[in-house]
Amino acid sequence: MINRELDADLKTAMVTGASGVLGQATVRMFLEEGFRVVVHDASVEALNDFVSKLGSLATRENIYPICFDPTNQDSVSTACERIQRDFAPVYILVNNCGILSNTLSSETSLEDWHDLFAHNVDSTFLMCKELLPYMKERKWGRIINTCSLAGKTGGVTTGIGYAASKGAVHTMTFALARESAKDGVTVNGIAPAYIRTPTVELYPEEMVSMLLKYIPVGRFCEPEEFSHAVKFLVSPLAGFITGSILDLNGGLLVG
Question: For site-directed labelling of 56, which of 47, 141, 215, 241 has its Cα 20 to 30 A away?
Answer without folding.
Answer: 141
